[in-house]
Structures are given as structure tokens and as C-alpha cells.
């Protein structure tokens, strides 16, 4: 796309699209694997995958074919009728999450909203109508709808939309005694991101995870794991809850699960699901044939041992390369995360680093002011990592003024 066309798009959007996004001035015309292309031939290495969504990369042949075939057959009939694919996806997710029942929606926020509602529904069905409190964590992000926003910590997101749900308290994941004091017999549920994504790619510490399990056992509070960003295989396990030893009653899924088609799912234990009655909840689009077909293609791809091996090798290369970079660049304070969910915490604002990487053909993003976040497609390879790391280092050095020492030959991790 030419500069004048770019400007035309920007001007039209400025008039007719709600101005809630700060978009980078680029229009991508097509994608292929881990790359995106502009109309004028510029090529970008995609290490953000549409914020953790394009899990199979761009223009994945199997996904494209399945979606096209589904479109030629039947896309949507609503939840007034049966179709065969919801049960198929639900069965596959039950096997992978240990929770037996699924509710299908269209986004992460809706999946969280569903979990919040049914935590209360569960207690209501037992006559415990005053068990309405949610215990969430500082630095949490759970989405933008009113319920999900109520358990989201950052005042920047919350402030303009007050009043939100009043029965929410926030515990510091590092303050276990403080957390314990908040969980009592008025708590409907504890909600946690096993790795806090928007909050700066912060894995929940093991001791906090143990305290969460203990608090649930002590009070009967339900546990909601928000795995919208950390789940669906991104960390190498289907859920990061399992890695932490968490046993949630409800799980929110989204992002990577649809591989680019909007899919949200709330998974329920049978005990919580037993409280649900027809009419309690619903979604016009949720779990339609298009969404389920995409999820099935994704889940089948994720089952491939070759993909699992490639993801593990690529993650190891990425973390090793970043830690080696950290040893040379004092501006890198921390490298954290798991699998293909990576945060690089800097001593400076990460925004200029994102812009400098973009200029060099690498797509990344910033979260929590100083953190560069990497959420590449699952199909990236160690060779893609080798291509990305020098671009990232150059961007960090250029944007932060940090002095990197030259690499030794063959020294790339
Ligand atoms: N929960 C978590 C952990 C997220 O990271 C996000 C989005 O970034 C959401 C919920 C909301 O998902 P969506 O934007 O699909 O509504």
C-alpha cells in the first residue's frame, strides 16, 4: 500500500472508527507463515501473532482449506439447534483441561465473564447468596467487559468506567499472608492468570500457587484460571495451571485456540456446571460451525509431536539467546515467561524499542510500560529466532542508548 493510500485509510478511520487504539501506521496485505507483507513489498517477522492469536501462523494451508470447506457447507445456525462440532471441541478440551464441560463464546473477556457469573451461580444454587466476593491479583488483566474489568487491576483501564463490581479485592501475589486474609467464607472465587500477560509477563510464584490451592481447600472458594493468554499450549503445556499445580474449577480460554477465528471457551467442572439451568447464559455466535472448525484444526495441529518438539527447541533457543543478550546489555533487567510466552523487562520504557524493532522488520509489542512481549506463532523455528534476535538487540540498543558488546563469531545462541 502506498503512503497516500495509507493516509486515506487513516483519515477514513479517524472519522468513522472509535478511537480507542493507537495503531502503528502500516497496512498488512497478506501473511505467510511467520511473516507479514505490505503491498509495497515490505516483509515483517511476526513475533506477536496478533497478540497471541495467530498460533498456526498466517495463511496456514490446512486452516484455510478447512474454513473454506466449512463456509461452503454451513457457517452458522445459532445455539437454537445442534451441530456436531461443539461436542467434538468440548470433548477434546475436556481431555486437555481435566474439566468436563464447555461453554462457547467469542472472546477472552466473554470467557472470563462466564466464569465470574457461574462462580456466583454455583453458590446461589446452594443457597449461599452472600458468597459474592472475588479475590483477584494486582497487575491482573482479565478483559474489558464490566465484570472482567472489575477483576482487572490497572486503574488506567478501570477508572473511567467506575463504578464496577464492588465485591472485588486485589491481593499482591508476593504477599501470601495478605492474600490469605482476603479469602474467607464470603469468597465466591479466586481468579488468577497463571502467567500475568498484560501485567508484564509475570508467572505466579510457586509459593503463591500453593497458597491459592490451600485457600480454596480452607474456604471452599472456587478457583478460576484465566488461561486466555497462557493456555492453549503456548507455554508447552496445554495449561500453565498444571505447571503451577493449580486445580481450577473454571478455566477461561481464547486467543490461540481459534488460530485467528474468534473463539472463547469457559471450561467448567461438573460440580459447577451442575448449577447451570437452561436460560442462565448464552451467546448468539458462540461455538458456531466456523469457530469450532477452526478450533478443531488448531487442536489437531497442536497434537503433532513434531510441533511440540519444534516449540520446545525454539523456546530453548529463544530463552538462551535472550539470557545471553541480557548478560551483555545492562538495560535488560529480566527475561521471564515460559514456552513461547516471553517478557523482556527493561530499565527503560519499552515503547521506543517496539518502534525501533518495527523499523527493522520485527513485530513485537510492549506491555506494562517497561516490558517487551513476545508471543510468536507456534510454528516459528530456531532459525526464525536466529533471525529475530539481532533485530531485537539492535532495536533495544538503538532505542535505549545501551551499549552492546559485539558478538563473538558463532556466538549467537
Ligand atoms: N484474559 C487475559 C489473560 C488476557 O490476556 C486477555 C486479553 O489480552 C483477556 C482476558 C481478554 O481477551 P479478549 O481481548 O479476547 O476479550
Brief digest:
The protein has 413 residues and is of the alpha/beta class. The protein has helices at residues 3-16, 49-52, 61-73, 84-97, 108-125, 146-150, 155-158, 176-182, 206-219, 240-244, 270-273, 289-302, 305-328, 351-359, 382-400, and strands at residues 28-32, 35-38, 43-46, 101-105, 133-137, 168-171, 187-192, 195-196, 202-203, 222-226, 250-253, 264-268, 332-338, 341-346, 362-363, 365-367, 371-374. The strands form 4 sheets. A 7-stranded mixed β-sheet has the order 4-12-11-10-7-5-6, with helices on both faces. A 4-stranded mixed β-sheet has the order 1-2-3-15.
Please count the helical segments.
15
Q: Biggest sheet, strands in spatial order?
A: 4-12-11-10-7-5-6
Strand tally is 17
Bound molecules: pyridoxal-5'-phosphate
**What proportion of the residues form beta strands (DSSP E)?**
15-25%
Parts with pLDDT < 50 across at least 5 consecutive residues? 403-413
Could you say which structural class the secondary elements and strand pairing correspond to? alpha/beta
Write the layout of secondary structure elements.
Layout: H1 3-16, E1 28-32, E2 35-38, E3 43-46, H2 49-52, H3 61-73, H4 84-97, E4 101-105, H5 108-125, E5 133-137, H6 146-150, H7 155-158, E6 168-171, H8 176-182, E7 187-192, E8 195-196, E9 202-203, H9 206-219, E10 222-226, H10 240-244, E11 250-253, E12 264-268, H11 270-273, H12 289-302, H13 305-328, E13 332-338, E14 341-346, H14 351-359, E15 362-363, E16 365-367, E17 371-374, H15 382-400
Parallel strand pairs: 3-15, 5-6, 5-7, 7-10, 10-11
Antiparallel strand pairs: 1-2, 2-3, 4-12, 8-9, 11-12, 13-14, 14-17, 16-17
Helix pairs in contact: 3-12, 4-12, 13-15, 14-15
Amino acid at each position: 500500500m502506498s503512503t497516500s493510500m495509507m493516509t486515506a485509510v487513516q483519515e477514513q478511520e479517524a472519522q468513522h472508527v472509535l478511537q480507542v487504539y493507537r495503531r502503528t501506521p502500516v497496512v498488512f496485505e497478506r501473511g505467510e507463515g511467520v511473516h507479514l507483507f505490505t503491498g509495497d513489498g515490505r516483509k515483517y517477522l511476526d513475533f506477536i501473532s496478533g497478540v497471541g492469536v495467530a498460533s498456526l501462523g498466517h495463511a496456514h494451508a490446512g486452516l484455510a482449506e478447512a474454513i473454506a470447506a466449512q463456509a461452503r457447507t454451513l457457517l452458522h445456525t445459532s445455539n437454537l439447534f445442534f451441530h456436531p462440532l461443539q461436542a467434538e471441541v468440548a470433548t477434546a478440551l475436556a481431555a486437555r483441561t481435566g474439566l468436563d464441560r464447555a461453554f462457547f463464546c467469542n472472546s477472552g473477556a466473554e470467557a472470563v465473564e462466564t466464569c465470574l457469573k457461574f462462580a456466583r451461580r454455583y453458590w446461589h444454587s446452594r443457597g449461599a447468596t452472600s458468597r459474592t466476593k472475588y479475590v483477584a491479583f494486582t497487575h491482573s488483566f482479565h478483559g474489558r467487559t464490566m465484570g472482567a474489568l472489575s477483576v482487572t487491576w490497572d486503574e488506567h483501564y478501570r477508572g473511567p468506567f467506575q463504578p464496577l463490581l464492588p465485591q472485588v479485592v486485589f491481593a499482591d501475589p508476593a504477599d501470601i499472608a495478605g492474600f490469605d486474609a482476603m479469602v474467607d467464607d464470603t469468597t465466591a472465587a479466586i481468579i488468577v492468570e497463571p502467567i500475568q500477560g498484560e501485567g508484564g509477563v509475570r508467572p505466579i510464584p510457586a509459593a503463591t500457587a500453593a497458597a491459592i490451592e490451600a485457600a480454596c481447600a480452607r474456604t471452599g472458594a472456587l478457583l478460576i484460571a484465566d488461561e486466555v493468554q497462557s493456555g492453549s499450549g503456548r507455554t508447552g503445556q496445554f495449561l500453565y495451571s498444571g505447571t503451577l499445580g493449580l486445580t481450577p474449577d473454571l478455566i477461561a480460554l481464547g486467543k490461540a485456540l481459534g488460530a485467528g477465528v474468534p473463539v472463547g471457551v469457559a471450561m467448567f467442572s461438573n460440580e459447577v456446571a451442575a448449577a447451570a439451568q437452561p436460560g442462565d447464559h448464552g451467546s448468539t455466535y458462540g461455538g458456531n460451525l466456523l469457530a469450532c472448525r477452526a478450533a478443531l484444526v488448531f487442536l489437531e495441529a497442536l497434537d503433532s509431536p513434531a510441533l511440540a518438539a519444534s516449540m520446545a527447541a525454539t523456546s530453548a533457543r529463544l530463552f538462551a539467546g535472550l539470557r545471553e543478550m541480557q548478560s551483555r546489555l545492562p538495560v535488560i533487567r529480566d527475561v521471564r515467561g515460559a514456552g513461547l510466552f516471553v517478557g523482556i523487562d527493561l530499565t527503560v520504557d519499552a515503547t521506543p524499542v517496539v518502534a525501533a524493532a518495527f523499523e527493522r522488520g520485527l513485530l513485537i509489542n510492549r506491555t506494562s510500560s517497561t516490558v517487551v512481549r513476545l508471543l510468536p506463532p507456534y510454528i516459528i523455528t530456531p532459525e526464525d529466532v536466529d533471525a529475530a534476535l539481532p533485530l531485537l538487540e539492535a532495536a533495544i540498543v538503538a532505542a535505549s542508548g545501551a551499549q552492546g558488546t559485539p558478538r563473538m563469531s558463532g556466538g549467537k545462541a
